[in-house]
Amino acid sequence: MIQTKQLVSFRIGEEEFGVDILMVQEIIRLPTITPIPNAPESILGMINLRGKIIPIIDLRQRLRIRGNMPTANDRRTRILIVEMAGHVTGFIVDSVSEVMKVEVSQIEPTPHLVVSSIDAVYIQGVIKLPNRLIILLDFRQILKPQEERELALLDKKVIAGDLPAPAQESDSV
């Protein structure tokens, strides 16, 4: 029996990435993001998604991909809502391409050279398809332990009322 993996593929700039679909809770349009004072540079702010406060991370900046972040009125921009280590976090991507099944045999190990300026620790492998390559990201590695602690502290501050909760928005796609 052929083993397959189901992925969500998405784009940031000219690069195409994939993430295991089991990590993605949902995909939403880009709502208004409430900035967080003194937050790390890659954390853009937070949103209120059906009563749950979710920190939003600029994946382009986190992966150090060159280019400008899409504007709020870019209709293709999405946020991947991902649960990792007990925390729900949103990651901004330029667009979501498709949900796809790939054979595990199509996933090559991470090349020993850094792929396109992205830190190799974030990469689970590279998927070889007939007409393109997709970089398979390991979202569990995207956040550093310090950032995970900061996100946990942010959750506590919002719950305690030390930070105002953003206005509630929900716009699933």
Fill in the keyword field for this structure.
173 residues, mainly beta, six-stranded mixed β-sheet, 3 helices
Structure description:
It is a single chain. With 173 residues, the protein is mostly beta strands. Helix content is 14%, strand content 43%. The chain is built from 3 helices and 12 strands, in the order βββββαββββββααβ. The strands form 2 sheets. The chain has a 6-stranded mixed sheet. A 6-stranded mixed sheet has the order 3-6-7-5-4-12. A hairpin with a 2-residue loop joins strand 10 (123-129) and strand 11 (132-137). The mean pLDDT is 80.
Helix content: 10-25%
Rg is 16 Å
Beta-strand segment tally? 12
Beta-strand fraction estimate: 35-45%
- Quote the distance from N terminus to C terminus: 33 Å
Q: Which strand order spans the largest sheet, edge to edge or round the barrel?
A: 8-1-2-11-10-9
Major sheet: 6 strands, mixed
Break the fold down into its secondary structure elements and pairings:
Elements: E1 4-12, E2 15-20, E3 24-29, E4 43-49, E5 52-58, H1 59-62, E6 78-84, E7 87-93, E8 95-103, E9 107-108, E10 123-129, E11 132-137, H2 139-142, H3 145-160, E12 168-169
Parallel strand pairs: 2-11, 4-12, 5-7
Antiparallel strand pairs: 1-2, 1-8, 3-6, 4-5, 6-7, 9-10, 10-11
